[in-house]
Design brief:
- The complex is a heterodimer of chains A (216) and B (261).
- Chain A contains eight helices and ten strands.
- By secondary structure, chain A is of the alpha/beta class.
- Chain A has one domain: P-loop containing nucleotide triphosphate hydrolases (Rossmann fold, 3-Layer(aba) Sandwich).
- In chain A, the strands form two sheets. Chain A has a six-stranded mixed beta sheet with strand order 6-7-8-3-9-10, with helices on both faces. Chain A has a four-stranded antiparallel beta sheet with strand order 2-1-4-5, with helices on one face.
- In chain A, helix 7 links the parallel strand 7 and strand 8.
- Chain A is globular and about 45 Å long.
- A two-stranded antiparallel sheet of chain B has the order 1-2.
- In chain B, strand 1 and strand 2 form a beta hairpin.
- In chain B, helix 2 runs antiparallel to helix 5 and helix 7 crosses helix 8.
- The longest helix of chain B has 31 residues.
- The radius of gyration of chain B is 24 Å and the shape is flat.
- At the A-B interface, helix 2, helix 3 and helix 4 of A face helix 7 and helix 8 of B.
- The structure holds adenosine-5'-triphosphate and magnesium ion (MG).
- Adenosine-5'-triphosphate binds next to helix 1 of chain A.
Chain lengths: 216, 261
């Protein structure tokens, strides 16, 4: 059974030409699917549709075996699929890194102590413990990027939706991130403009063009 | 930002789509709106106030604003003062005219309520028709030319420019919170998170303002917003100003005549 199955997704922002015009996508367990495409093609839009932050005008979203139509259908999807936003500044909003990472587990009902324990675990795993008590908006671009990944990994999602995860990373950190992602068992959707990164990680590559997804 | 602040839109280029009123010099329009407001506030006689609605409606027609939505906006303003209007007849002492649930409404109170409603609506209508159609940048430049302190003008222009940026930032952060399973409830976690959200927006707004100031300084900003388009009072503007002054004088004359009776 596929984790995600989107069919004939059509979407337009108000008073704008359509962004997606019949996009289809299937994500199987264990798969690392990459999506490339020009700026403004609608890649970020597609990821937001997958977790119900945007609602398509028509088309079907089936996630984890159930059709998802309404806001309430997506609460479970958001718990099981972690979206890392393209712009870390859209995501980080708590004063400190630890608090921001704890936000997700707290939403899932963890106690403060449990949440903080998981924060420390995920920071150690990503070798980011030195950032634990830093002020989020004073991190560098690349540090923010890694922290946003932590904010999602800490929720232990079954699927990772990563919007340009290597953006703003230096070579060392990019290599480290690639290594981390390679080790992770989760299925992922990787939106990236970096051909090398896609080739290294992706088990299947797609390209978004003219509002539709096709083979790269 | 550059497009909005460069002043390219200043002057009369924003007359697009509007009626002929949009082509009248912005300063003349601001002064006219202010004068109109002063006159209707000064007038007390109900017939005069009712009469004052006529020029306001005429301005609305001349502004090219869609009447339906504009009147709806006016009604939205009315809803703010509705409470006072409804209470006034019952709280102002005077000659009773009717009773509801044992409360007496007075003639004087009712007249007062009608007076306030007419004054407010005439003034707002004229303001929307005269000034509401102006691009914020034009309004800023016109106010500046009218010797309004530069600080206030900048404040106005930046508020108009960035209120949407802030709103969008708020919506994006809320979206990202939702993506991490946040559902507002009445608990400590929710209050804390909303507090963080508002705090973060405040901090970012301050940092952004510093970055913007830096970027503006790099482009030679010294506290003055440069003017590109010129504003000139032409014959048509003088004609409009004269006609409008005559209408205001007429209203005042009617008021004085009625007061003398
Ligand atoms: N909130 C919005 N309101 C209106 N239009 C939007 C909004 N967000 C995105 N768009 C438009 O929708 C289109 C698709 O945007 P999207 O962010 O999905 O592109 P993308 O493929 O992720 O591009 P990039 O590679 O630059 O990240 C673009 O043309 C963009 O201008
Ligand atoms: Mg994008």
């Amino acid at each position: 059974m596929p984790l995600f199955e989107l069919s004939d997704i059509r979407f337009a922002f108000p008073h704008r030409p359509p962004v997606l015009q019949g996009a289809d996508l299937v994500l199987h367990p264990g798969e690392r699917l990459s999506i490339a495409g020009p700026n403004g093609a609608g890649k970020s839009t597609l990821l937001k549709i997958m977790v119900g932050l945007l609602m398509p005008a028509c088309g079907r979203v089936v996630a984890f075996g159930a059709p998802r139509r309404e806001e309430s259908d997506f609460h479970e999807v958001r718990r099981r699929a972690g979206l890392v936003f393209q712009d870390p500044d859209d995501q980080l909003f708590c004063p400190t890194v630890a608090e921001d990472i704890a936000f997700g587990p707290l939403n899932l009902g963890a106690s403060r102590a449990e949440a903080l324990a998981r924060v420390d675990a995920v920071l150690a795993e990503l070798e980011l413990t030195h950032l634990r008590n830093r002020i989020t908006h004073k991190l560098s671009g690349g540090e923010k990027r890694l922290v946003t990944l932590a904010t999602v990994l800490v929720m232990d999602p079954e699927v990772l939706l990563l919007d340009e995860p290597t953006n703003a990373l230096d070579e060392a950190n990019e290599a480290r991130l690639t290594g981390i992602l390679e080790e992770l068992p989760q299925a992922m959707v990787l939106v990236s403009h970096d051909a090398r990164f896609r080739q290294r990680l992706a088990t299947r590559e797609l390209r978004l063009r003219d509002g539709r997804l096709g083979p790269a | 930002m550059s497009a909005t602040l460069s002043g390219a839109a200043a002057g009369r280029s924003d007359a697009c789509g509007g009626g002929w009123l949009g082509r009248v010099d912005p300063r003349v329009r601001i002064v006219a709106a202010t004068a109109f407001a002063v006159v209707v506030v000064a007038c007390d006689a109900l017939p005069v106030l009712a009469l004052a609605l006529l020029p306001a409606l005429a301005l609305l027609a001349a502004s090219g604003l869609p009447p339906g939505p504009t009147l709806r906006r006016m009604a939205a303003m009315d809803s703010f003062i509705l409470f006072i209007l409804v209470l006034l007849p019952f709280t102002v002492p005077g000659e009773p005219i009717f009773t509801i649930w044992g409360f007496q409404a007075s003639h004087e109170g009712l007249a007062q309520a009608v007076r306030i409603a007419l004054t407010a609506n005439a003034a707002i209508l004229a303001l929307m028709a005269l000034v509401g159609t102006m691009e914020p940048v034009t309004l800023g430049h016109a106010l500046h030319r009218l010797r309004v302190p530069a600080t206030l003008v900048h404040l106005l222009m930046f508020t108009v420019r960035y209120i949407d940026v802030l709103r969008e930032e708020y919506l994006r952060l809320r979206q990202a919170m939702k993506a991490r399973g946040f559902r507002p409830a009445t608990d400590r976690h929710t209050y804390r998170s909303i507090g963080f959200l508002l705090g973060m927006m405040l901090v970012r707004a301050m940092e952004r303002s510093e970055r913007i100031l830096g970027a503006m300084k790099c482009r030679g900003f010294t506290g003055q917003i440069p003017l590109v388009a010129e504003m000139r009072v032409g014959a048509a503007d003088i004609a409009f100003a004269t006609g409008f002054a005559a209408v205001l004088a007429g209203l005042l004359a009617a008021e004085l005549a009625l007061a003398a009776v």
